[in-house]
Amino acid sequence: MDKGFLKCPFCGSDDIKLIDRIDVSDGVHTYYHAKCSNCGASTEEQKSQYDAIVAWNRRA
Ligand SMILES: [Zn+2]
């Protein structure tokens, strides 16, 4: 999969990480969000890695 993150629209950093979190309430679903390592800007949690990347790229 192409992890084509755009640069951070807030600080211009290209150090964007994909964060995953297992929902402990059901232990099954994993949610993903993109986060800027420099300024901490992040997206809402998404249900797939792809959606997290798309959500990030829409912010700019
Ligand atoms: Zn940033």
Overview of the molecule:
- By secondary structure, this protein is an alpha+beta fold.
- Helices cover 18% and strands 23% of the residues.
- The chain is built from one helix and two strands.
- It has a two-stranded antiparallel sheet with strand order 1-2.
- It is elongated and about 35 Å long.
- The two termini are 21 Å apart.
- Bound molecules: zinc ion (ZN).
- Zinc ion (ZN) binds next to loops.
List the helices and strands and how they pair.
Elements: E1 16-22, E2 30-36, H1 49-59
Antiparallel strand pairs: 1-2
Compact overview of the structure:
The radius of gyration is 12 Å and the shape is elongated. It has 1 helix and 2 strands; from the N terminus they run ββα.
List keywords for this structure.
single chain, 60 residues, alpha+beta, two-stranded antiparallel ribbon, 23% strand, binds zinc ion
Total beta strands:
2
Which molecules are bound besides the chains?
A: zinc ion
Uncertain spans, ≥5 residues at pLDDT below 50?
none
Most strands sheet: 2 strands, antiparallel
**Number of contiguous helices:** 1
Order of helices and strands: EEH
> What's the number of structural domains?
1
Q: How much helix is in the residues?
A: 10-25%
Task: Kindly report the average pLDDT value.
Answer: 91
Biggest sheet strand line-up: 1-2
CA-CA gap between termini: 21 Å
SS content category: alpha+beta
Rg from Cα: 12 Å
Tell me the overall shape. Answer: elongated
Give the DSSP E fraction (strand runs of 2 or more residues): 15-25%
